[in-house]
């Protein structure tokens, strides 16, 4: 106490502030050095072109094949999508400078919400700045201390964070383990509402939730089903409506959250779609909706056009499925382990964080843009390079990517 008192009296307020800042810098530099030492440092490569199957990267001459974007349908740079954004920008302005309930709702926002509800065959929809915000805003507004939420242990961070914000009783079941989910549902029978929360497609592993079994158990134990469809909307299912369409349970999933920032134009934005009373409640209570600016008109215009293109013609969905099978089969034949089944997310499992980072760097030298993923994005010991197939990749692009993986894998001892 005496030392602290002397320290306060001998240092001026300015010196004390400088000392606190120096202490903070020391702590932060130590943490950053730990990340570097573990081989999990994440560098940001700078792209100098529009998003697409072939891009330009700062400091590298020539075109680079991009195999790590969420641009599943190739619509991020589609000329009609771009033109729709330009038109919305000219007609509705750069932004609203307001939240939705004050003076931030335009006709294009309402039109896109209606279109999303129609696409998913739900009663209503509500837009958010991102799907992270949609997940952050759902559970707290819907669930009370009388309720329970049951979450897959490998759900996306945004679902986990959204559940943390709510006051419901929380149950976590083992990944895709339906026996464990059933045990947790039995335990949760004492609560008012029970909500099972799962990703439709898991972004790090490329596996798909067993929605038929989840919905069967939910019906048996009186639970509702929530699915995050960020890595499914636009390209899974016969017409791209997602995992619930793929698995034939569209009428059994209660709530869907998804994004406009991947297959549907790739800009930003998210949404919740489901029962009309739920959407109305979210407009009244969902904090990310109430306290965030409205999605910009250009973003809304791009997403609306992307959705139009998908609803008019879904043949692009089938073409991407064939390209996904081509990449997976060729990589497995070469000796790589690819996680997941039949999803355009194709994680090349390597285990070691440093190896995944070094191989990704060497892939770039061969003209292939991929990124290594390691802890804390994935569990320790499960580092991988996540490859993502797009409908606008050609078969030649895919073959070139496989050839580069084989060369780099042999260089680093990942292949014999």
Automatic annotation (TrEMBL):
<keyword id="KW-0808">Transferase</keyword>
<keyword id="KW-0809">Transit peptide</keyword>
<dbReference type="GO" id="GO:0003870">
    <property type="term" value="F:5-aminolevulinate synthase activity"/>
</dbReference>
<dbReference type="InterPro" id="IPR015422">
    <property type="entry name" value="PyrdxlP-dep_Trfase_small"/>
</dbReference>
<comment type="similarity">
    <text>Belongs to the class-II pyridoxal-phosphate-dependent aminotransferase family.</text>
</comment>
<dbReference type="InterPro" id="IPR011282">
    <property type="entry name" value="2am3keto_CoA_ligase"/>
</dbReference>
<keyword id="KW-0663">Pyridoxal phosphate</keyword>
<protein>
    <recommendedName>
        <fullName>2-amino-3-ketobutyrate coenzyme A ligase, mitochondrial</fullName>
        <ecNumber>2.3.1.29</ecNumber>
    </recommendedName>
</protein>
<dbReference type="Pfam" id="PF00155">
    <property type="entry name" value="Aminotran_1_2"/>
</dbReference>
<dbReference type="GO" id="GO:0008890">
    <property type="term" value="F:glycine C-acetyltransferase activity"/>
</dbReference>
<dbReference type="InterPro" id="IPR015424">
    <property type="entry name" value="PyrdxlP-dep_Trfase"/>
</dbReference>
<dbReference type="GO" id="GO:0030170">
    <property type="term" value="F:pyridoxal phosphate binding"/>
</dbReference>
<dbReference type="GO" id="GO:0006567">
    <property type="term" value="P:L-threonine catabolic process"/>
</dbReference>
<keyword id="KW-0012">Acyltransferase</keyword>
<dbReference type="InterPro" id="IPR050087">
    <property type="entry name" value="AON_synthase_class-II"/>
</dbReference>
<dbReference type="GO" id="GO:0005739">
    <property type="term" value="C:mitochondrion"/>
</dbReference>
<dbReference type="InterPro" id="IPR004839">
    <property type="entry name" value="Aminotransferase_I/II_large"/>
</dbReference>
<dbReference type="InterPro" id="IPR015421">
    <property type="entry name" value="PyrdxlP-dep_Trfase_major"/>
</dbReference>
<dbReference type="InterPro" id="IPR001917">
    <property type="entry name" value="Aminotrans_II_pyridoxalP_BS"/>
</dbReference>
<feature type="domain" description="Aminotransferase class I/classII large">
    <location>
        <begin position="64"/>
        <end position="405"/>
    </location>
</feature>
